[in-house]
Structures are given as C-alpha cells and as structure tokens.
Amino acid sequence: MKHLLLLGLGLLLLLPTAQAQGKYSTRTGSIRFFSGTPLEDIEGRSTQAAGVLDMNTGKVAFSVPMKSFVFKRTLMQEHFNENYVESEKYPTATFSGAVVGFQPGQLPGTGLQRVQVEGDLTIHGVKRRVRVPGTLELKDSHLLVSSKFNVAPADYNIEIPALVRDNIAKTMEVTLAFSCDPTPRLKPPLPDEFSSLFSPVGPACRPATRYRAGPGPGR
C-alpha cells in the first residue's frame, strides 16, 4: 500500500510536465492597443485573436482580424478601418515566431515564467522582425500567455492625416492576454500562418468559443 501511495504521488508530480508537452491554442485571445496623447486617448480591443504555442518546438503564432477591434466611439472605429489600417485590403495582423533560447521540456516551468519571443509581425501588409517580452504560466490545465510591447504605426506604413496627427501617439502600447487550452484534435480551418505549427495528424485547436460582442461603441 505504501508503495502504491508513493507511486501515485510520483505520477502527480510528473503531471504538470506531461501536460506541458504539446500544443496550446485559443480563438478568443484578447488584444488591446492604446494611444495616449495630451489631446486624446484612443483604445481598441479585440477578443477574437487566434493563437497557438507549440511546447515541443517553442513556436508561437497569433492572428487577429482588424475589423474585430472595438472602439469607444463609432467614428474612431470607422477611421481605424477605413483610413489607417485599410481593413478591407489588409484584413488581419499576424505574428509568427519562436521562444528565444527554447529547449524542449523547458516550458512552462513552475509559476510565472518570463520569456522573449522573436518573429515576424505583419500589420497593414508590412512584415517586420520584432522581439518582444512575454510570460507563460500553466494554471489549471490552461496556458496563460501575456505580452506587452510597443508598435509604431509609421513602421507599418500607416499614415496619419496631418489634421489628427497630434491626437495619435507615435508609438502605441499593445497588450496581449491569451488563455490557451490543450489541443486534442485537429479542427480546421486555421489561419495559413499557423499551418507550419501543425503536423497532419497532430493536435490542434479545440472548438472555438463563440465571440460575444460587448455593447456597441457610443458616440
């Protein structure tokens, strides 16, 4: 009996490591960007970001529809989609990269683990190599992923009209928060940029949770 208890305790200690091997994903990730100036604060939020992290390779990818960003004011949302990011022509922003210095079995460790991720961030049809900080935490079988970094609209050929140039910050703060689940079954379609992360018979995203839009932006 004593040996069985010790064996059970040993398996429990190994469980977090076993759960960490594989892919975690979400289709309801949260992305917020904020522009603050003395004249005006502008904030856009989306909860329709799809993301995936492969614990076997350290690869990371996410994609967010530009039209899913919701603003406080309707006019802000219209200008964002029509005049700045041209959402009809460039419908998504994407990132594809990997954890810097990744070693198999290393992630996630105990508690909150800080990482650096390097890869290609594509916005408005412009791809740029970036390196951003982030954290990973395995909690109740969910992989919590967060990151905060800055993006300059000028780096992505997003032109701001002179009339409102003082109202929009030259650098915007982007905050990302994903709660990812283990991916037991392949369930296409996934964004094309994620395809390299999934083997034909490997695991993939769990069924998506339907997005519930909040109250419409007022003006």
TrEMBL record:
Residues 23-177 form the Lipid/polyisoprenoid-binding YceI-like domain. It holds the Pfam family YceI. Coiled coil: none annotated. InterPro entries: Lipid/polyisoprenoid-bd_YceI, TTHA0802/YceI-like_sf. Keywords: Signal. Residues 1-20 form the signal peptide. This is YceI family protein. It comes from Hymenobacter cellulosivorans. The lineage of its organism: Bacteria, Pseudomonadati, Bacteroidota, Cytophagia, Cytophagales.
